[in-house]
Design goal:
The complex is a heterodimer.
Chain A: H1 5-13, E1 24-28, E2 31-34, H2 39-50, E3 62-64, H3 75-91, E4 95-96, H4 108-114, E5 123-126, E6 140-143, H5 146-155, E7 157-161, E8 165-171, H6 180-191, E9 200-204, H7 206-209, H8 213-221, E10 230-232, H9 237-244, E11 264-269, E12 276-278, E13 286-288, E14 299-303, H10 310-320, E15 328-332, H11 336-344, E16 346-347, E17 350-351, H12 352-359, E18 362-363, E19 388-390, E20 407-409, H13 412-421
Parallel strand pairs in A: 2-3, 2-5, 3-4, 5-6, 8-9, 8-11, 9-10, 14-15, 14-19, 15-18, 19-20
Antiparallel strand pairs in A: 1-7, 12-13, 16-17
Helix pairs in contact in A: 2-5, 6-8, 10-12, 10-13
Chain B: E1 4-11, H1 18-21, H2 34-42, H3 50-53, E2 68-72, H4 85-92, E3 97-100, H5 105-113, E4 118-121, E5 135-139, E6 144-147, E7 152-155, H6 163-168, H7 171-177
Parallel strand pairs in B: 1-2, 2-3, 3-4
Antiparallel strand pairs in B: 1-5, 5-6, 6-7
Helix pairs in contact in B: 2-4
Classes of the chains: A alpha/beta, B alpha/beta.
Chain lengths: 431, 182
Amino acid sequence: MGMTIVEKILAKHSGKEKVTPGENVWVDVDVLMTHDVTGPGTMAIFEEKFGKDAKVWDKEKIVLVPDHYIFTKDKHAMRNIEYVKDFAKKQELKYFYEPFTTNYKGVCHVALAQEGHTRPGEVLFGTDSHTGTAGAFGEFATGIGNTDGAYIMGTGKLWVKIPETMRFTFEGELPPYIMGKDIVLQVIGDIGFDGATYKCMQFDGEAIHSLSMEERMTICNMSIEAGGKCGIIEPDEITVEYVNERTNRPFEMLKSDEDANYSFTKVYDATKLEPVVAKPHSPGNKELAKNLSDVKLDRSYIGSCTGGKTADFVAAAKILKGRKVAIDTFIVPATTKVNESLDKIKFDGQSLREIFVEAGCKVGKPSCAACLGGPVDTFGRTHNTEVVISTTNRNFPGRMGSMDAPIYLASPYTAAASAVTGYITDPRKFI
Amino acid sequence: MADIIKGKAYVLGDNIDTDQIIPAMHLVYKLDDEEESKLYGKYAFSGLPKEAIGDTPFIKEGEFESEYKIVISGKNFGCGSSREHAPFALAKAGIEAVIAEDYARIFYRNSVDGGFLIPYETEKRLIDEIKTGDELEIDVLKGILKNKTSKKEYVLKELGDVKDIIDAGGLFNYAKEKNYIK
């Protein structure tokens, strides 16, 4: 019996020939990512357990990306940034993307990829549940808590239970109105909000491998929304090109064996996919966009690690160009690089930013912003009973701030089309 | 960990996510400051919708700890964020064990590795049988739950391969016992 890609990566990192689902192994970690919300707690545990003067296991393998609560007057949030800044300085961390400097990047999961920290065959842990995003690069990437993060900081190792792998194959060509978000919302809706608990979700098939890295990241990012331990896509030429443009580090391209064992398989006909929306209050509460046209909206939000990348704004701009939004529409680039692309990328001589401003959107600064509520002065945060369509990844009660504001999750196409009409709108109306 | 956990039950439904356990706006208090970290207890379960709690708040107005000691929940408890603040907040509020049908992976792991509480699983859907306020007793050694109010007993699923970490009181203690770290 062969191994899946995830089994191969974890076997290699635990010094074993073969691993089997259910087995616990200690793995060597290639990258530990932490940020401003979970960083201080992780660092405090590290200092408590290893000593005030202890050094981290490898100052080049910890990537510190403050991104959650940056543009706020909240004194606690600002204190967190100072805390991680002091730690980075004391530990001489090589990769600290400091807010309010030219080195600031924005949302960690997108910044990790853009700065060359996501590489095939590696093991990446992050103290954020959406760390699974990096599975798009053919690596094992998953979210952990402060204690596990602190343990890695001191030792470079962590115990991992080998997950079973579920395989989702998308055959055929994707229709032009379907995005990574539609694909993953379809899958979560099909298997249920806890359908992949403790398991790895492997995505493959020609439709998946036709996608850009940004679109693949959206899919792997939301594997956690089905309870998945990680999402993964085998590396291909598109992966290699993206990675080699951003880092000189060598990496290993691993793939699942032909006779690998999957605990579940499902094959989709990509040509039949339709735009999907997740209704409140679960990412698994699936409905087709076309069946929700009577849902009146107050707000459209296009941003976050799953919906605020360059490809997401290119999609939104295709619909918003020459049109006006009917509701409050917030545009939040995930990173400073994405922000720059809003000015660089043009349609008929008009930049993405100009298209959004002319359509009546409010464009914010790169960060997580209102994706997870946050301090009361957060850009785009809900405060009352706003009905929101959002390209973010989670729609739990109170997720974007107010407990009384229902959130519908959708692709940037659907969020943009809905912004124009003020009702949930199937983007095929405009594409 | 104590051999017996005693206290009142607080009963919730399925898919209790980490934003409901501790909303994102409260993730800013220091975890290692004794006074400030009490706020995590104060705001534990403050993200639960009104319909989930009815007339029985988890934490009474002005309090930092709950009168409840054991959470009873359905499927997929702790789904969502990786925030360790979630099991930490429940522990600060005085919760010693959660009994659910199953858990989201990161919450389960954080509860165990941080040594905050015991995440028990059950075959039976206890939320249909146990009511908020029932007096419960968990025999930790035998893995048995007794409902003193209804006089019913339930067998909890074995803790399996995380039992040693729970017994040690968390990942660091466990690693020290095993001589993985000094």
